[in-house]
Input
Amino acid sequence: MGRASYGGLRMKAIGIVRKLDRLGRIVIPMELRRTYDLQIGSPVEIFVDGRGIVLRKHQPYCIFCGETEDIMQIHEKNVCKACLDAIRTYPLR
Ligand SMILES: [Zn+2]
Output
């Protein structure tokens, strides 16, 4: 097992290798599903860069600042309360 740097994120190898099935699926081990609260139907977001693929439980995040708390949808876009307040009070000319 080793560690790898993934952008600013430190990734830790946990010694699990899984084979893709013919439809491109893998099974996420039960222990990891428990640890990351992934249940049947949980949305999982897929991130990529030039080096690999990262899976993360999907959480709506603010399109402006990336915050995941106090998110509301406006025209199908996620915006946090702080950014919404900033937009509301933005001086118009
Ligand atoms: Zn925001």
In short: The longest helix spans residues 81-88. The radius of gyration is 18 Å. The chain is about 15% helix and 30% strand.
